[in-house]
Amino acid sequence: QVQLVESGGGLVQAGGSLRLSCAASGRTFSRHNMGWFRQAPGKEREFVAGIRWSGGSTLSTLYADFVKGRFTISRDNFKNTVYLQMNSLKPEDTAVYYCAATLHNMVIVSSVYDYWGQGTQVTVSS
């Protein structure tokens, strides 16, 4: 069982930055692949970034095209936390951001995730 709690959302001007955190409970966190998704009003939930658990020394990360070069996902297995550093924010990044955990390897697919946080609101003003 994994419980997830997001934090770090808020209101920021276009071009600004935010760092989202997702704190996880559960002994098996380090073995879960983690993802960040977002959902804007009237839109479907969409994949933002994913990071696979590290059985060795190299982590595998994936990004949606619309955040490449602006967002960075990372994880700290000792702190049971995954992060999403968001830079050069745009008004279209406004959404509720969710972190999620899965043992499945297909981190871009929301249906494979077993655990979800409650979400944190990110609002980017123009």
Q: How many helices in DSSP terms?
A: 0
SSE succession: EEEEEEEEEEE
Helical proportion? under 10%
Major sheet, described briefly? 7 strands, mixed
What portion of residues belong to β-strands?
over 45%
Class computed from helices, strands and strand pairing: mainly beta
Any idea what the radius of gyration is? Answer: 14 Å
Contiguous low-pLDDT stretches (5 residues minimum) are none
The gross shape turns out to be globular
- The total strand number stands at 11
Mean pLDDT: 92
The first-to-last residue Cα distance is: 40 Å
Structure description:
There is one protein chain. With 126 residues, the protein is mainly β. The protein has no helices and 11 strands. The strands form 2 sheets. Strands 2, 4, 5, 6, 9, 10 and 11 form a 7-stranded mixed beta sheet that branches. A 4-stranded antiparallel beta sheet has the order 1-3-8-7, with no helix packed on it. Strand 7 and strand 8 form a beta hairpin.
Summary keywords:
single chain, 126 residues, mainly beta, 7-stranded mixed beta sheet, 4-stranded antiparallel beta sheet
Short description:
This protein has about 130 residues and is mostly beta strands. It has no helices and 11 strands. Strands 2, 4, 5, 6, 9, 10 and 11 form a 7-stranded mixed beta sheet that branches. Strands 1-3-8-7 form a 4-stranded antiparallel beta sheet, with no helix packed on it.
